[in-house]
Amino acid sequence: MNAVDTNVLIYAHDPRDLAKQQTPLSLLQSLDDAALLWQVACEFLSASQKLEPLGYSRAQAWQDIADLRRVWTTVLPGWDILNRAEKMLAKYSLSYWDATLLAACHEAGVARIYSEDLSTYPRINGLECVNPFLGP
Q1: Domain segments of the chain: what residues?
Q2: Backbone dihedral angles phi then psi of residue 118, each to the nearest 5 degrees
Q3: How far apart are alpha carbons 48 and 63 in whole angstroms?
Q4: 2-130: what fold?
Q5: What DSSP assignment string belongs to the chain?
Q6: CA separation for the pair 45, 65 (Å, rounded)
Q7: Which residues have a Cβ under 8 Å from the Cβ of 1 and sit 6 or more positions away?
């Protein structure tokens, strides 16, 4: 199973750089077996507000998350995620939020996460971290 970080979803709806927007749009359309992480959904709903002056409404953001929930597996937080995150924070140089994101991926059985922010660690505890904006 795959997952995407908040930044991938934001760039998919940000019209300021059409070339950069195409990468996440193509990626999102290609993901059949994907997980929508609770944290990503919440962060997206918050961060997408900065796109309102560009014509992307709050209502559209909520609708887009609802659409993803219908086709992707939703991963809700649990206490085991915090336990995993704590161990990852002790082992790796991660922010708290990146550690919880990666811990949620591990908990859900996600094999690959697409993120612009995690390229320092191409693989963490078996989880592949791929920056979709970098060439092959």
Answers
A1: 2-130
A2: -110, 20
A3: 12
A4: Rossmann fold (3.40.50)
A5: -EEE-HHHHHHHH-TT-HHHHHHHHHHHHH-SSEEEEHHHHHHHHHHGGGGGGGT--HHHHHHHHHHHHHHSEEE---HHHHHHHHHHHHHS---HHHHHHHHHHHHHT--EEE-SS-TT-SEETTEEEE-TTS--
A6: 8
A7: 33, 34, 35, 73, 108, 109, 110, 111
The CA-atom distances, in angstroms, between 44 and each of 49, 54, 77, 84, 88 are: 9, 16, 16, 23, 23
Residues 64-116 have pLDDT tens digits of 999 999 999 999 989 999 999 999 999 988 899 999 999 999 999 999 999 99
How do strand 73-75 and strand 112-114 relate by DSSP bridges?
A: unpaired
Burial 60-90 (b: 16+ CB within 10 A, else e): ebeebbeebeeebeebeeeeebeebbeebbe
pLDDT of residue 102: 94
- Residue 91, both tokens: 């082992």
In whole angstroms, what is the distance from residue 98 CA to residue 95 CA?
5
Asked if residues 131 and 22 have their Cβ atoms less than 8 Å apart, the reply is no
